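Per your request, structure below.
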């Protein structure tokens, strides 16, 4: 057992025993793995049932009891849903919109977060409070003036009408500011200035490397939010013109006074698969970045 020297009140050295568990790596027990397995199955069940519903007819989906096993119509429903509303064009449009919104939000939020965290300027606290206060404003309040602006600019049914209003988010600014306060030492910025680095060089060589884990997390959150956004794109775009996936799904499965729920769920499955692929490919890098950013010297 490891012992470390210590000194008593009289000055004589004494030996202090360390706990046997000190430095030992703890492992989860069988119960933890069982609970995690049930939680994973519970989380994956909606996706599984979406796949099951997409493989049946609309009449079978709405009939009780609901089907729990895959049916034979998955390929037919996929082909019908893909061609009914030009799902390919909607998929490309959504990728462009979500990618541009995520990149711009991460860039501008990191720059603003760095300014609020490490650059002293007059009115910094009041301006930050104003930015955070905008998060309490419902987005529905800005729909009418925003629609009038894009109408005057001739941007109705154009992708820039969805991208430009979402170039930066107050949540992203606050998120990056909170991260950089702890992760970026002010001495590092001062040392770069003493070496003659200007502000842009400090941002590129100092701020971005330190903020990379938070930037990855913020980019993933914003990308998913922009991918699933429906309210404003449904107003600015049309299903027959230049739709995103969520707008295209609004016109999917419509028939003679009925809606084919199986086709609608097939479209939802198509819109979900790209996100699952992104998480499968980039998930380990995001988790690794978070872990690296959490380690402090």
């Amino acid at each position: 057992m490891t012992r470390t020297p210590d000194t008593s009140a009289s000055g004589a050295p004494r030996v202090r025993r360390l706990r046997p568990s000190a430095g030992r790596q703890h492992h989860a027990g069988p119960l933890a793995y069982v609970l995690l397995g049930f939680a994973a199955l519970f989380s994956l069940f909606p996706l599984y049932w979406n796949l099951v519903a997409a493989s049946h007819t609309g009449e079978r989906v709405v009939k009780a009891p609901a089907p729990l096993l895959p049916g034979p119509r998955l390929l037919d429903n996929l082909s019908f849903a893909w061609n009914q509303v030009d799902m390919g064009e909607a998929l490309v449009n959504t990728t462009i919109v979500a990618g541009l919104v995520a990149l711009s939000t991460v860039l501008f939020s990191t720059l603003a977060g760095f300014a609020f965290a490490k650059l002293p300027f007059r009115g910094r606290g009041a301006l930050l409070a104003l930015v955070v206060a905008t998060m309490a404003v419902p987005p529905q309040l800005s729909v009418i003036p925003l629609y009038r602006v894009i109408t005057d600019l001739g941007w109705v049914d154009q992708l820039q009408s969805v991208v430009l209003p979402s170039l930066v988010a107050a949540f992203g600014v606050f998120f990056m500011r909170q991260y950089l306060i702890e992760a970026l030492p002010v001495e590092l910025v001062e040392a770069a200035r003493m070496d003659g680095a200007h502000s842009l060089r400090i941002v590129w060589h100092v701020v971005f490397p330190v903020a990379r884990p938070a930037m990855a997390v913020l980019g993933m959150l914003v990308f998913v939010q922009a991918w699933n956004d429906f309210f404003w794109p449904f107003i600015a775009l049309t299903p027959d013109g230049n739709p995103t996936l969520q707008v295209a799904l609004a016109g999917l499965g419509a028939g003679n006074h009925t809606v084919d729920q199986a086709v609608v769920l097939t479209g939802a499955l198509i819109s979900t698969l790209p996100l699952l692929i992104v998480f499968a490919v980039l998930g380990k890098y995001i988790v690794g970045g978070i872990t690296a950013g959490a380690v402090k010297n």
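The mean pLDDT is 83.

Regards,
D.
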